[in-house]
Amino acid sequence: MYPENYRYTKEHEWVRVEGDTGTVGITDHAQEELGDIVYVDFKYGRDTLKAGQQIEQGKTIGSVESVKAVSDIYSPVSGEVVGINDALAEKPEKLNEDPHGEAWLVKIRLSNPGEIANLLSAADYQTYIGAEK
Amino acid sequence: MLAAASLKATCLNAVHRSTGARMVDFGGWDMPVQYSSLVEEHLTVRKSVGVFDVSHMGEIDITGPEALKLTDFVTTNAAGRLQTGQIQYAGLLYEHGGFVDDVLVHKVSGDHYFLCVNASNQQKDYEHIREQNRFDAEVRLSSDDYAQLAIQGPNARATLQKLTPVDLAAIRYYWFTDGTVSGTAARIARTGYTGENGFEVYIDPAEAPRIWNEILEAGQAFGIKPCGLGARNTLRLEAKMALYGHEIHASITPWEADLDWIVKLDKGDFVGRAALLRQKEQGVHRKLTGFEMAGRGIGRDGYEVLADGVPAGWVSSGSPSPTLNKNIGLCFLPMAEARAGRAIEIVVRSQPVAAVTVETPFYKRAK
């Protein structure tokens, strides 16, 4: 369920690092907690998140809204936005169906790969969500 | 896993947990918010049938020679017009005209009225009614005697009929019959909180897990789903049914909540009547109004409403509507703005988003 090669945050994001780029999404646990997702918005501060934008670890890069709740997305890493999954605007339900795969949110060229060490392993994340329940 | 010690649990808690329901703290109760998908559960109720555990709801019995006098005195609707076996929706008000709660009044007999009240308000309601009791009547909080299951949707009757000898087709809307379900004594009421046809049955909590499963089996042919409080909320919102703490609370009067129809000023004195008359004379300043989002966003509970760019009110409930595929909601607006077709804005996370007021209910079932 939780890929070993991903790293996780306590705010329920994941990042998969390949080379100098991290792909970011929300976890299966997050989509389950939210339920039917209807909107995904990419924002940094008050502005729409754009490719080329420099972002910092822990800052809000958008929000995911379900029928019953809205939740901010926090970037697990710092760096430059190099991809945004715009397909989710049309098909936000993909986040319920494939949160660890097709429904990734953003791709970030890491400016500080050392940050990965701050994140949780798959095992630690699962312990964390078990404990959180 | 067990519910946190501080939370109250219904007799079906273990059943919900074993079926993988997502549980939440709902006013101090550990309740299922959804089993599969809120939207699927919602649409199943609209199209076929769903079953809800609403055993957290409270029950109060008012009995004695002057049971009617007390019931009539503490509720806003005309309890005196009820026939035996009939049900009425009413407000329970404070002297100042705000809501203690909203209730369903069932006339069991001339000296017995049965009230269904909101879970988190039951103790408060009970104490309020006792405080107002200057009659030859007894008030009893009997919530522990009942589990309550709601079977809702166009196939609710066909589902429940398999489990009861009572002719359900003969029970009219807002009437009830005391009979049996699955061989167990049951109060079967044709009521609901979904805007759909259906029944709410009051049964012995000890029998509830068995009956819950039998209802699911009886409805299998119709694709019945267990439904959580999430779908219950979106269903009631589409039907514009008030939710305590949102559309009604201590600072809201029935006039403001657009519930004039549950107030019978001509029935004689009742708690809150003087305040309601006074407000009517002096003018009601705000009113509950439906809206649809025109821009992208969902106006949720507590969000500010702007009229001509100026703060004018607040959202009491808002959600995507699974039936209508629109984002809908209810808000309190100044009387002058509380009409359909008024362009407004809802402040969604610091951004004003266009919306328009609309007629309600948002959804009405075909007769």
Describe this structure in words.
- The complex is a heterodimer of chains A (133) and B (367).
- Chain A is of the alpha+beta class.
- Chain A has one domain (11-128): RNA polymerase II/Efflux pump adaptor protein, barrel-sandwich hybrid domain (OB fold (Dihydrolipoamide Acetyltransferase, E2P)), CATH 2.40.50.
- Chain A has four helices and ten strands.
- In chain A, strands 1-2-3-10-9-6 form a six-stranded antiparallel beta sheet.
- Chain A is globular and about 35 Å long.
- The mean pLDDT of chain A is 95.
- In chain B, strand 5 (87-93) and strand 6 form a beta hairpin.
- Chain B is globular.
- The N and C termini of chain B lie far apart (44 Å).
- In chain B, the strands form four sheets. Chain B has a six-stranded mixed beta sheet, sandwiched between helices. In chain B, strands 14-17-16-15-18-19 form a six-stranded antiparallel beta barrel. Chain B has a five-stranded antiparallel beta sheet with strand order 5-6-7-4-8, with helices on one face.
- The model of chain B has no long low-confidence stretch (mean pLDDT 96).
- Chain B is α+β, with helices and mostly antiparallel strands and 367 residues long.
- Chain B has three domains: 13-55 and 146-238, Gyrase A, domain 2 (2-Layer Sandwich), CATH 3.30.1360; 58-144, Alpha-Beta Plaits, CATH 3.30.70.1400; 285-358, Aminomethyltransferase beta-barrel domains (Elongation Factor Tu (Ef-tu), domain 3, Beta Barrel), CATH 2.40.30.
Quick summary of this structure?
Chain A is α+β, with helices and mostly antiparallel strands and 133 residues long. Chain A is built from 4 helices and 10 strands, in the order βββαββββββααβα.
Question: Any chance you could write out the topology, listing elements then pairs?
Answer:
The complex is a heterodimer of chains A (133) and B (367).
Chain A lengths: L5 E3 L4 E6 L2 E6 L1 H7 L2 E8 L2 E2 L5 E2 L4 E7 L3 E5 L4 E6 L2 H4 L3 H4 L8 E5 L11 H11 L1
Antiparallel strand pairs in A: 1-2, 2-3, 3-10, 4-5, 4-7, 6-9, 7-8, 9-10
Chain B lengths: L12 H6 L3 E5 L2 E6 L3 H10 L2 E4 L4 E6 L3 H8 L12 E7 L5 E11 L2 E6 L4 H10 L6 E4 L5 E6 L3 H6 L14 E6 L2 E6 L8 E6 L4 H11 L6 E3 L1 H10 L34 H10 L3 E8 L10 E4 L2 E12 L4 E9 L8 E6 L2 E8 L9
Parallel strand pairs in B: 3-13
Antiparallel strand pairs in B: 1-2, 3-9, 4-7, 4-8, 5-6, 6-7, 9-12, 10-11, 11-12, 14-17, 14-19, 15-16, 15-18, 16-17, 18-19
